[in-house]
From TrEMBL:
Protein name: Protein MtfA
Top-rank lineage group of the source organism: Bacteria
Keywords: Membrane, Transmembrane, Transmembrane helix
Transmembrane portions of the chain: 12-29, 35-50
InterPro entries reported for this sequence: MetalloPept_cat_dom_sf, MtfA_fam, MtfA_N, SEC_C_motif
Organism for this UniProt entry: Stieleria maiorica
Gene Ontology cellular component annotations, sorted alphabetically: cytosol
GO molecular function, one term: metallopeptidase activity
Length: 332
């Protein structure tokens, strides 16, 4: 996703090699028939084709970072505020590239700068520990005005949580599309103490899916981690331990949801995860290549926990206990 000077040079070398091979092949074939000389123009075309994405990204990163996005990140994203200057610069560049390449479309709702910033942050936080990462297959993010049902309908009240969902990766005719509930996307960053973040949850599914299978095991995990992780999840799902209040029961749906839910804990409440389940934390740290407990320890959280009778931060006008809190107490 991010083009560094090193990756730019590597891309340029590869483009030169490919175009040289095409040009050389055209010249060799022209010894048998001048007809093959028409292949020579393919060499510079191949060079351009191979370089176009990298050059586009470099151009995007050179542009000034929009003040509106900076304000949103600084206000709502604790992860961003915990970064040093170099880390923030890299994060901003990733945001610019992600927003340039991934359409974010509102369905019966507006997509403002804060929403765009929070979607981008959700995508970047899980992969910030990787040098190069591509969310291949993600074509668009759809923002819905509320939670939605299996038929993608948003009609009905929030208390119908057993049939509604806050986010999903599209399947079938919606393959390549991510759907997020706007109020729940916002609430995930506004309420840093609830250990829930639907944006991070859904992008964790994409990280998991990068090897072609959504099985709770992301690609790139070391051999020392794969075995213990598979064994751990197998035991957890088999026994489904009761009374483990620090882990949302939705995690025990299947292997994929276990990984996605634990990802929310890893990035929102790493101190809880490390304290209550140090083995899980260590394995998540290896898979994400980040030590979030240490990294986030010094960040000052500017937002207080939302009280039951306070107005819901999603903007519905209802009390928190009658709106988003109800959804979170009974997760779809």
């Amino acid at each position: 996703m991010l083009e560094t000077a090193q990756s730019d040079r590597a891309n340029q070398r590869l483009a030169v090699v490919i175009s040289a091979l095409i040009g050389g092949a055209a010249l060799l074939l022209s010894l048998k028939s001048p007809f093959w000389l028409i292949g020579l123009p393919l060499a510079p075309l191949a060079y351009w084709w191979w370089r176009r994405k990298t050059l586009r990204r470099l151009q995007v990163m050179a542009e000034p970072f929009p003040a509106e996005l900076e304000t949103a990140l600084d206000r709502y994203v604790d992860y961003y505020r915990a970064l040093d200057d170099a880390g923030r610069e890299r994060f901003r560049n990733l945001v610019k590239v992600f927003l340039d390449e991934t359409p974010i479309t509102g369905i019966r709702t507006d997509v403002d700068d804060t929403t765009r910033a929070l979607v981008a942050a959700s995508a970047i936080i899980p992969v910030f520990g990787f040098d190069d990462w591509e969310y291949s297959g993600l074509g668009e993010v759809l923002i819905y005005p509320s939670a939605f049902g299996d038929d993608y309908s948003t009609s009905g009240e929030h208390d119908d949580v057993d049939r509604r969902t806050l986010g999903m990766i599209g399947v079938g005719h919606l393959s390549g599309v991510m759907i997020l509930s706007k109020p729940d996307l916002w609430a995930g960053f506004k309420n840093p103490d609830d250990k829930r973040n639907v944006g991070i949850h859904e992008f964790a599914h994409l990280v998991d899916k990068a090897d072609g299978s959504v099985d709770g095991l992301p690609p790139g995990a070391s051999l020392a981690t794969i075995g213990p992780w598979i064994q751990w999840i197998g035991e957890e799902l088999k026994n489904k331990p009761e009374g483990r209040h620090h882990i949302d029961q939705y995690a025990y749906t299947n292997e994929a949801e276990y990984f996605a839910v634990l990802s929310e804990y890893f990035f929102e409440a790493p101190e809880v995860l490390q304290s209550k389940a140090p083995k899980i934390y260590d394995m998540m740290q290896q898979m994400y290549r980040q030590n979030t407990r240490s990294f986030l320890a010094g960040v000052t959280r500017r937002r207080k926990r939302v009280r039951r009778n306070a107005k819901c931060p999603c903007g519905s006008g209802k009390k928190y206990k009658h709106c988003c809190r109800r959804k979170r107490m009974s997760r779809p």
